[in-house]
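User: Some background: our group keeps a shared notebook of sequences we're curious about, and every so often someone picks one and asks for a predicted structure to add to the entry. Today it's my turn. The entry only has the sequence so far, pasted here. Could you supply the structure so I can complete it?
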Amino acid sequence: MPIEGEIKITVAGNSGMVETVSITSTRPLHITQLFKDKSIETVADLINTLYHLCNTAHRFSYFRLLDNSGVISLSKNEISAYQLLLDLETIREHCFSISTKWRHGADNTIDSNIVKLLTILKEINTTLFTGSDPLSLMDKELQAFSSIDKLIVKLENQIELLLIGDQSEDVYPFLDYDSLNNWLQKSDSQSAIFLNSLKENNLGDVEAFHLPDLDLKSVGKLMQNTGFIKQPTYQNTIYESTPYSRQSNHKLIKQLFSIYGNGLFTRAVAQLLEVFELLNNIKSSYTDIEFEKISYDIQPFSADSKSLVQLEAARGRLFHQIFAEDGKIKSYQILAPTEWNFHPQGVLSRMIEAVTYKNEQDLVNQIKLLVDVVDPCVGYSIEIDRI
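Assistant: Of course. Here's the predicted structure to add to the notebook entry:
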């Protein structure tokens, strides 16, 4: 069963103004203690079992740690294929959250287009890797990119149908503000309807501190402290690590920021934009993946070794760190983007503090919008202490 835990948000207000915000977590950040002294294969199985959200990101991080430590050897071809799987996972997470969260009222129907998209994504994975689970340590065969050419075309068509809708004009709507606005005015897709409802709402427009490039040596030392992993800060700043952070330098997002600030509309467009940026990257960056038979000659850890890796997962930047002594895993740390984004004094807390509301239900609805735009995958509960 998944062990991701839950974020609890407790809010107290008075006369339509938020007075206090408390964000606490039941996420079991100590779970990696289970990895101590376990075999390489057992830890691989544990990571696969424990981490359902961003499963590919966690398992790819582990593989990279083993590669850096000389336990296994990953070819450039294999790494490229795993990065492709990671991009596909991010597309899946974004598309699923958009199709299920970007709606109004009590409409809980499942869009058949997301079911079709998930089916295509699964077919791409099983076609690209045969013989075994792609991120297991078992023998497997990696197929050439040409084996999934037609599936990528199907994926692109399905994404456009799900997120953009039927278009009489074949115009990419995310080049700049004018192209976006033209699409929003003409489209009746669920995404366009939702985004139009956010345009005049400045909810969530607070200053953003995007997680910059970090000195990994410094981060490695900080991650040895459980307090840092629970509530991370870096150089006295609480950063956010979100899809909006990754897309903040895109021309369109800069234009939206100048008009709408850092609020819901800009952040929602950034999530939608990222799907198409990743899709374009898939079509151009992985075409040289070649057929490869993969079999690992697993070596023991050196007497004392440590390694830290980072990668961009669907929800933000993910860090994995491993320490080994006498050839065995002695400690393992994971810092997930959730701990930045749901820090008690982080971006979500500051957003909620700025909310004004009419009644309790209005307050709850606004908090839900904010949580979903920061991290639509995290489990959470909302408690209104007083209004």
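Suggested note for the entry: The two ends are 36 Å apart (CA to CA). Strands lie at 7-14, 17-25, 129-130, 140-142, 292-294, 304-313, 316-325, 328-335, 380-386.
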